[in-house]
Amino acid sequence: MFSQIVMELKSDEKLTYKKASTLQGVLFENIDTEYASLMHQQDRHPYSQYLLSENDKEYWVVNALTEEAYENIIKRLEDRNFNCFRIKKGDIDVSIANKRITIVEKQTLINELNTKDAERVFNLSLLTPMAFKQRGVYVSFPDLRLIYQSIMNKYSSISDNMVMMDEETLNQLVENSMITKFNIRSAIFPLEGVNITGAIGNIRIYIKGSDVLARYIRLLLKFAEFSGIGVKSGIGMGAVRIREGVIEK
Length: 249
Hints:
Layout: E1 2-11, H1 20-29, H2 33-41, E2 47-54, E3 57-64, H3 67-78, E4 84-87, E5 92-104, H4 106-115, E6 121-130, E7 132-134, E8 137-139, H5 144-158, H6 167-175, E9 177-191, E10 194-207, H7 211-227, E11 240-243
Helix pairs in contact: 4-7, 5-6, 5-7
């Protein structure tokens, strides 16, 4: 199962995506110590989180990619006693105005591979800076091979019976889709002692392959709304959303 909790935040200080890395500490402080320790040891985390400013409001979004992560993370944050917290860096007091939870069963997405009509165009919003690491170097431009590869690796890491990542499938995805329109800019994501440059904005992806391939790409992109794309999705980078309508000029 994939789950998401969206918490509307209230604070005297504006909270942008640049503060998201500090919220990983808040997250770990409010879950079981043993589970938090396990998360520190894993290369790929079964969760993602980010800060989002939208319609003059600020939201903390936390996603869980497994049922275990849902039980240990989302349920802890859902507790009504978790209604405020302090960001230690800057001594910022934050209250939580409201919460909403979304749950999508993994099987629901898989079933859509055979039952739902295939879209050919996807408008993907890069909500927080998205970057990749290739041969030890950060890459900030949203290349489709890197996008698909990242999502497939994330899905494979939390799946017991469905390995997404293989070169043949990846090559087919890249050969049969293209970015036809984009409105992006570079953006800095600050970490302790280093700044990572990523891309933020909107891209349009067109699929020219078979219906099965188009539905497969839809599955990947819907999963990416929970997992994030690229590096550092556990501390606030790579958050994405499929959007309806046209890309702004």
